[in-house]
Amino acid sequence: MSEFTNVSVLKKANCYFDGGVTSRTIRFPDGSKKTLGIMQPGDYEFTTHDREIMEILEGDLDVLLPDAADWVQVQGGESFEVPAQATFSIRVRALTDYCCSFLS
Fold first, then answer.
1. What is d(CA 5, CA 49) in angstroms, rounded to the nearest whole number?
2. What's domain 8-103's superfamily in CATH?
3. Beta strand pairing status for 8-9 and 21-27?
4. CA dihedral of 20, 87, 89, 54, whole degrees rounded to 10
5. Rounded to the nearest 5°, which phi and psi values hold at 49?
6. 51-64/87-103 β-pairing
7. Cα(89)–Cα(64) distance, rounded to whole angstroms?
8. Which residues, at least 6 apart from 29, have a Cβ–Cβ distance to it below 8 Å?
9. Known CDD domains for this protein (predicted)?
């Protein structure tokens, strides 16, 4: 899906890691939400509340998922899933455009 219709967008940006990661929250009529964002090259650690699917639209990164021993490369057109209440690490190699879906 390259476009979302009938959504609400929160104007205030979500900024993390001194602006290294930014996003905007999108809310759907059914109550679900996604964020659309950009990650600058760097190393980041995130903690989830809900289960998340991170779709990489453009870019290149490595992700270390919870309980994984090895980093996995993820590029534009690929995605990965993170369980709820988990911590994961990302090494962004190139400017990365992403869409994160929050699943309850």
1. 26
2. Jelly Rolls (2.60.120.10)
3. antiparallel
4. -70
5. -100, -55
6. antiparallel
7. 5
8. 6, 7
9. cupin_PpnP-like
Task: Inform me whether the pLDDT recorded for 63 exceeds 90.
Answer: yes
Question: In this predicted model, what pLDDT tens digit does every residue of 21-44 receive, in sequence order?
Answer: 999 999 999 999 999 999 999 999
- Residue ranges with strand state E in 21-86: 21-27, 33-39, 42-47, 51-64, 72-75, 78-82
The kind and range of the H/E element at 99 are: strand 87-103
Q: How far apart are CA 62 and CA 87, in angstroms?
A: 15
> What is the rounded CA–CA span in Å between residue 37 and residue 55?
11
Sorting pLDDT into bands at 50, 70 and 90, what band is 3? confident
Structure tokens at 49: 């509340």
